[in-house]
Design brief:
119 residues; mainly beta; 49% strand; Cathepsin D, subunit A, domain 1; 11% helix
């Protein structure tokens, strides 16, 4: 399957500051990630730290912020990891699921579900 990218706006829920970029849709990732230096420069605070397992199996601790996550005319909230500088921004599966958007692998697109599953 080819890569899917979508424009995402992260919003600091306290100040309204924003960070906007093209994010890679990664259904293997739970949370979002963006370059830490860019998040800090955009005014996002570090709200905590947590440990993640990376795609190569390594375990690493990262700082995160809690932000509004806007894409495709939808808004949700969630954790955004302060990633290494130069990292490609990643949109994880949690924000996708929370607004009812799924990946259509046959067409390499994002598709809105008719309803968000609540079961």
């Amino acid at each position: 399957m080819g890569a899917i990218h979508v424009t995402v706006t992260l919003r600091n829920l306290r100040t309204g500051d924003v960070y906007e970029s093209l994010f890679l849709v990664d259904t293997g990732a739970t949370d979002c990630m963006a370059p830490g230096s860019e998040l800090r420069a955009s005014g996002f605070p570090e709200n905590g730290r947590t440990t993640y397992e990376l795609a190569d199996g390594k375990v690493q601790e990262f700082s995160y912020t809690v932000a509004g996550i806007e894409f495709m005319g939808e808004m949700t909230g969630g954790r955004v990891i302060f990633g290494p500088d130069g990292t490609e921004p990643i949109l994880g599966v949690t924000p996708l699921d929370s607004v009812g958007i799924t990946v259509d692998p046959a067409n390499r697109t994002l598709r809105r579900l008719p309803a968000i599953p609540l079961k």
